[in-house]
Amino acid sequence: MNDLTELFNKLFVNFNYIVAATLFVIGLYTVIAKSNLIKKFMGLNIIETSVFLFIVSSGAIVGGKAPIIGEGVSSKTAFVNPIPQALILTGIVVAMSTTAVALSLMIKLYEQCGTLNADKLKELK
Amino acid sequence: MLRSLDVLLLIFLLVTAIGVVCTKDLLGAAIIFSAYSFTMAIVWQQLGAPDLALTEAAVGAGVTTVLFLIAISRTVRREDE
Amino acid sequence: MKKGIIIFAVFLFWLLLVSAMVSLPPMGSPENPAYSHIVPRYLEEGVEEAGAHNIITGIILNYRGYDTMGEVTVILTALMGVLAVLGRENLLHHTSKVDESTIERSVIVKCVVRLLVPFIILFALYIILHGAESPGGGFQGGAILGASVIALTLTFGFSLTVKKLPLKYRTVFESAGPLGFFISGVIGLFCGLNFLTYIIPSVAPAYQDLIRHLLLLIIEIGIGVGGGTIIASVFLAMEKVGKE
Questions:
Q1: A36/chain B closest Cα distance in angstroms
Q2: Measured between alpha carbons, how far is residue C33 from residues A58, C164, C169 in Å?
Q3: DSSP reduced 3-state for A36
Q4: What is the extent of the structural domain holding C115?
Q5: Which residues of C touch A67 (CB under 8 A)?
Q6: A89 and B52 in contact by Cβ < 8 A?
Q7: How far is residue A14's CA from residue A19's CA, in Å, rounded to a whole number?
Q8: pLDDT, tens digit (0-9, with 9 covering 90-100), for A85-117
Q9: Residue C44 pLDDT more than 70?
Q10: Which value does ipTM take for this structure?
């Protein structure tokens, strides 16, 4: 019984991680189960944001401030970890670029084949 | 440790993600995806990352949604077609 | 049946992920291993070393400048991919669904967009230029610039935007991001230092800070203008449809 409460405590402290894992799994389900290509790509976008949430949460700090060091602020006060944020900032923009390329490919595919259903596309020759 | 607002936002994030998966209408799914991105922006503001919040609100909720809408308007709207 | 198998497999994967997360250190404590290596140095000396009060701007432009340079190239390559697939828009051969639509646009939307877009552009410029002191920077401001172009196009029509932002200007502005990195980085090479060092040794030390600020500003403006134009170009290329 005591072990179980400890486990729940641990899980609740890491609630952001749990939510990130659940979002990852929801996105994975969309990519596997849905046959529409645009829907698949929405699932891929959800996976991307879940990974971003996980990495930024690992750098968060309780009561931490944003890492902008003004004039009168001593650097001894708690700031959140800036490295994950700098990494994810580039990641968000790259995610948008891949979305643009994939959607333009889908538009061309629909012009050529007349469908965006992955199952039907498999049968085309 | 976690504030109740954070927990509420994270739960809303899960709800919108499930909404994106379950909506058959792709236009509705794109709008729900925009709401998901906006919630993510608020979560990042809560985690102490205002730079990321700005980027996500402009890129995720704005530009990506518009790109999805263009793609839907030029292809199919229902998921099963 | 097939759905059930997928849900079961995905649930097993979720259990695996959660069981791994139980053993992670508690979120939000300063004793996490993520804080132990280089973060204290970034937070304590980042302002003097990188030349920006916003540590994130310092990291992405100075400590990890090569990373950002590669990423700016990624956006440009994405634009090239979109153009290779869909092609540039041309007013002689193309129009858009917005222009063809028979539904009249609401007066309220037109009026609000006309009033708001100048302020949106002003906000974007503030975010680009003030990125070293407050939240913001090139990418954020560029995305807001691109969003203002999208709002104008969706309200006032495709042909107006293509006329106001002609191709000969956009082709130059699209490459502004890598160009800004090139201009700022090559100065270090000419002075016998490494690429992207932002230092000119022959200048008096009192002015070094100013020069570094200016070079960082060139990069920020390049990323902002380049990113905004690339977003606008991708939008226009995807929005066009062939004329009958």
A1: 6
A2: 10, 53, 49
A3: strand
A4: 57-242
A5: 43, 54-56
A6: yes
A7: 9
A8: 888 988 999 999 999 999 999 999 998 888 888
A9: yes
A10: 0.90
